[in-house]
């Protein structure tokens, strides 16, 4: 039983499938658990609610090591705790692949729930949380850089031994962002208290997710790359280092920021008069019209993040 | 967002995996959906709560027909509606096998939540809902009797053409009970209002599930087969017909009732002075001690229902 002092409960559910949403050779069970929990908890926060509880359904092959499952559940519990919630129930079954379905519940504490439909022309667009880091980390892993944490950290250290120390730390932070996103949970209710008109968590990419806000609200969202580059939580230096290592053009960092998913930053719109609360960065504004522009142009890669396939 | 007028929300989650909990050649998608929803809704009712909402996570192969998925979701929605709840959210993903994870939420409407731990010596044990029918239906299907509804009802009608009309209806009702359980949802909150001291839904078998109550409450539960045979919702005639068709001994009906799962009847304990409300049948009593007895003897098949494996 979960307390719902507000008399309303926010609920969201999400499914992670091995090979599609995670790979056991790229992420350890603790990180997979944290990430699975984070996706749902961030969704609750993006509605303006405080996460209260998770329910976990886990399917796994019979020959999977018990320690792997315990580490997964431990990761879920740790992430849950970091968001102020508890694991309130679960179910397990055998299956050929690992699958984790999580439902998160949250309490609105008397505030209105914020949706994707309330953005109004004149509002400012702001973000809090990392952007682009998880996508860059995934590309490093896909390119064979970064190694397999489950098999030991030595491999990663070898792979990243080429660049200098600072750069190695930058790249490691991107891989860590892929494995273990850190959504800014308290910023969700904070934004609602500050008058947010619409909010979403960035799971599929900034363009794709703000596209849902633009569509839902019947407005155009105009982003500025200079404001994005100046946001403290956009790790431009690390992204540029990753782009160099991967032989990508220098401006590739912006692609990760705009189209990369899985960071679970929060993006919201606020009335221009009051603006966002502390810790948020304005990256654009809401106008009459439709769709998303970046520096006045339509972004061509609006499809956002596609999950990798095994 | 789901209303939680009580200020507490009851939540439960459950996972169904193709080949383990259902077979696509034995049940159509509508029935699989109804059953998946029923399992969770019955769990909520067994806590004494009124089901309010379901969240559904569905994994399915990319080549699965869209109509199959729509029928599954339709079945979930129909069952949900029959319990007075709504589908409040969902997520989908591709995977090699079909997997459905459902979370159900419920409202206690100011009543105490009932658990498995409150049964006291002197209480009576009562049930409401079908018992044994789903297990007998599964054995008929396993024996190749009853045919595959997804492939058309003709096959079933042929298989059941041997017995007379009444008997055919009896057997069809058992197969239907396996495919489409009908938990007595309102009886959960009703039992709590009537002073139930412990309650559980019968998903793994009467002995196995009442065993959880006996263990959790630190008591012995003494059942009487004559009282069980007299319960209006134990379909003794149909079970006996199925036993005959399967060349089982006549007393096999009791085995289905005691050890058969998946009917989602409700079993509860009540103070002897007040007894159960209308619609419930007393089948035994609570005593000092441990474990379960039937007619004074330990039931030898206490393992209850094992899900079939593909």
* Beta-strand residue fraction of chain A: 15-25%
* Strand order within the widest beta sheet of chain A: 7-9-6-10-8-11-12
Number of helices of chain A: 10
Oligomer state of the chains in this structure: homodimer
**What structural category arises from helix and sheet content of chain A?**
alpha+beta
CATH topology of the largest domain in chain A: Phosphoribosyl-aminoimidazole Synthetase, Chain A, domain 2
Report Rg of chain A.
19 Å
Largest sheet of chain A: 7 strands, mixed
CATH architecture group name of the largest domain in chain A: Alpha-Beta Complex
Q: Quick check: average pLDDT of chain A?
A: 87
Straight-line N-to-C gap of chain A: 38 Å
CATH class of the largest domain in chain A, anyone?
A: Alpha Beta
Largest interface: A-B, 42 and 42 residues
**Could you spell the SSE succession of chain A in H and E letters?**
EEHEHEEEHHHHEHEHHHEEEE
Domains of chain A (count)? 2
Helix content of chain A: 25-40%
General description of the model:
Two copies of one chain form a homodimer. Chain A is an alpha+beta fold. Chain A has helices spanning 29-46, 66-82, 133-142, 154-159, 165-179, 187-193, 206-217, 225-230, 236-245, 252-259; strands at residues 2-3, 8-17, 50-60, 86-94, 99-107, 124-128, 198-202, 220-223, 265-270, 281-287, 291-294, 297-298. A seven-stranded mixed sheet of chain A has the order 7-9-6-10-8-11-12, sandwiched between helices. In chain A, strands 2-5-3-4 form a four-stranded mixed sheet, covered by helices on one side. In chain A, helix 1 runs parallel beside helix 2 (66-82), helix 3 crosses helix 5 and helix 3 (133-142) packs parallel to helix 9. The A-B interface holds A 1-17, 20-21, 47, 53, 55-59, 88-97, 99, 101, 103, 105, 108, 113 and B 1-17, 20-21, 47, 53, 55-59, 88-97, 99, 101, 103, 105, 108, 113. Strand 2 of chain A pairs antiparallel with strand 1 of chain B, so a sheet runs across the interface.
